[in-house]
Design goal:
single chain; globular; five-stranded antiparallel beta sheet; Alkaline Phosphatase, subunit A; alpha/beta; 35% helix; 404 residues; 2 domains
Length: 404
């Protein structure tokens, strides 16, 4: 038996008037997911425990089977694992996004956050900007590290954890009320704007019609992760694909093999065929029992507020990943169980995460069950099933019991 999760980040949404009261997930042309839904168990799963923030870090830990209340120590420390940043137990790491702020205002606090990721600034451009930040702010106690695209890290020795606001929660708002309380962090952010706004990288981006990375933004603070081996916990030799440091960091911490796919990025346009091929190969040729496929695009399009592109992201996954994975596994003659779900809601209208239970689809290649015509939030609710706490869902996937 082989096991697989296809995690469609941020796919769940709310009903929209533009779609006749349907959600993007419900209205998208996704014949392959809908065909699976006819023969699968549908239900809801609470991936975000009550009282915890509705982030991909917490949600993906839940889906993988880790109780976030035990294993979660912050977002950026997980990403630091992926980059290979050495951390002591007393160190604190921060996510250090390059963001786009409006430039018309005279006062930093009055600026509006236009883009939480500087329009997916390239890693090469981010590296140059991060070198400039290091030149001004790095000390014996503080250092900066380039991640992927806008997702960078600051590590501070013997600091303290404090609550900071994610930039994607502040989109289109004036930033003054959401800046850190700690004076040193706030001053670094303010000075970064003066350093970056006229940097040649950003001047060139604006000339190309792209948004600049004209400020840093601290959030996702936390301490060194304490994840445990996936194979020891669940008895499964596991592999994972993701284009983002967060999931790669979880893989490092849990001793899960991280699969690299050339040309596979976190945006709408990515190497979907390569991802599907690598997934089948891992399960049928390389001896892995479990494959976790994390696809970022629906979430990114939601943060951008683009309904059309969010639906396109869902349709690309349905067209370019799912049928190729299914065909590859079926042709191998391998029995398998497949779980498809988002990690959290990311409503296009809100452009940020929401922590309500998300829909899941659980398919067993050995059993033909009566399901629903559409894999949707409403049908998942109508099933009457709710898996809570969310980290228990992985036990349903790994169960040897045929879905009834």
């Amino acid at each position: 038996m082989k096991y697989m999760v296809i995690l469609c980040d941020g796919m769940a949404d709310e009903p929209l008037d533009e779609l006749g009261g349907k959600t993007p997930m419900e209205a998208a042309h996704k014949p392959n997911m809908n065909q699976l839904a006819k023969h699968s168990e549908l239900g809801l799963v609470r991936t975000i425990p009550e009282g915890m923030s509705s982030g991909s870090d917490i949600a993906n830990l839940s889906v993988l089977g880790y109780d976030p209340k035990i294993y979660y120590t912050g977002r950026s420390p997980i990403e630091a694992l992926s980059i290979g940043i050495p951390m002591e137990d007393s160190d604190i790491s921060f996510r250090c996004n390059f963001v786009t702020l409006s430039e018309e205002e005279d006062v930093y606090e009055d600026r509006i956050i236009l883009d939480h990721g500087a329009e997916d600034i390239s890693t090469e451009e981010a590296k140059v900007l991060m070198e400039e930040i290091k030149k001004h702010f790095a000390t014996e106690e503080i250092d900066f590290y380039t991640g992927i695209s806008y997702r960078n890290i600051m590590v501070e020795k013997k600091s303290k954890v404090e609550k900071l606001t994610p930039p994607h929660d502040v989109l289109t708002r004036r930033i003054g009320a959401y800046l850190p309380n700690r004076v040193e962090l706030k001053e670094m952010m303010k000075k970064s704007y003066d350093i970056l706004k006229d940097h040649p990288i950003n001047v060139a981006r604006k000339e190309r019609g792209l948004r600049p990375g004209n400020s840093i933004w601290f959030w996702g603070v936390g301490t060194k992760p304490k994840l445990t081996s996936y194979e020891d916990n669940f008895g499964k030799k596991a592999a994972l694909f993701s284009a983002v440091d967060l999931l790669k960091g979880i893989a490092v911490g849990a001793n899960i093999t991280s699969i690299e796919v050339e040309g596979a990025l976190g945006g709408l346009e990515t190497n979907y065929k390569g991802i599907a091929k690598a997934t089948v190969k891992a399960l049928t040729e390389e001896g892995y029992d479990f494959m976790y496929v994390h696809l970022e695009a629906p979430d990114e399009m939601s943060h951008q507020g683009s309904l059309e592109e969010k639906m396109l992201a869902i349709e690309y996954i349905d067209e370019k990943v799912i049928p190729h994975v299914l065909n590859g596994l079926r042709q191998s003659g391998q029995d398998f169980r497949l779980l498809i779900l988002p990690d959290h809601f990311t409503p296009v209208k809100l452009r940020t995460h929401v922590g309500e239970p998300v829909p899941y689809l659980l398919y067993d290649s050995r059993k033909d069950v009566i399901g629903y015509d559409n894999f949707s939030e409403e049908n998942a609710r109508n099933s009457g099933r709710l898996v809570e706490p969310g980290y228990e869902l992985i036990k349903k996937l790994f169960s040897d019991i045929i879905i009834d």
